[in-house]
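Hi Q.,

Before the meeting this afternoon, I wanted you to have the guanosine-5'-diphosphate prediction in hand. No need to reply - just skim if you have a minute. The sequence and ligand are here:
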Amino acid sequence: MLKGIVVSGINNIYNVKANDRTWVCRIKGKVFQSARKFHNPIAAGDMVQFVPYNSKRYEGWIVSREDRTTSLVRWNKKRKAPQVLAANAQVQVCITSTDSPPFRPRFLDRLILMGEIGEMQAVIILNKIDLGITEFVRNRIDNFKDIGYNVLFCSAETGEGIESVKEYLKGKVSVLTGQSGVGKSSILNRLGGKELAFVGLVSKKYNRGSHTTNSSNMYFVEDGNRRGMETVIIDTPGMRELEIYGIEPDDLSFYFIDINKYSGMCQYPSCRHINEPGCAVRKAVSQGEIHSDRYQSYISIYNQLYKSSREMYGRA
Ligand code: GDP
Ligand code: ZN
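Predicted structure with the ligand bound:
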């Protein structure tokens, strides 16, 4: 039996890296009862045990998966199931752009939330700074900084700021997320330069098309001879929208640092901060102490979570 790290997976066929070789593995039998409700039981970043059945062609059966330290999970609307985008990453890199596509602060709220639910630390990247930073974007970014998030600025086009991104990610396992078009692939190419190594081996035989863009891939950025200190990056599919999965609506405010700061001061301990009298959160919003975008994100995610928990558990 061998142990390896999953670098990619398509149609339940996984590339598993073990001792500098990449194996093409499938899941053996019904070993993942606990992952049944998931669209994909295994994701890039997972540590798995597998039994080689063809050592010449490097093919094996995955028999178990180790517990995850972190996970990045979204609700896959099309499949009506949660989808694991990445496992065991330390940092979630939330990529945004100054323009084209326009900066979407509320999408960023959702990205950050998804990572924090999965126990990851978030860092924000504002890409395309060569296009200029408007007053609106500057204000919103400053607000994220005030809340406590780390923000890095760069341009994958000109290369400005890329060194600091590289430095930040060095020696860590990171997962890149972002709306389609923000420049995720361009940044990834910049980070890897010529050394960027995708070790996936899924051949045409296995790849029945169409799903490649809907799954994550892991890349190893070579760093000279510092073995074991390499930078690992998991790239996720570009998204257009993001539905949150994995928490109850009433726990949502704990994840909004700025909102949570006020929630203890509400008149009712069970305040949802929607329409209750004596709500300290709504007061803080009206006084500009909490950004109204943040509050709107809170409300819209609350409603989405409420709706999906009703659908799932049939609650009234
Ligand atoms: P992805 O969908 O997030 O992977 O985005 P891509 O990397 O494919 O980039 C989308 C488009 O934005 C491409 O036309 C890129 O050339 C362009 N782009 C990426 N980064 C930058 C940047 O820093 N500045 C400018 N002006 N364009 C960029
Ligand atoms: Zn309240």
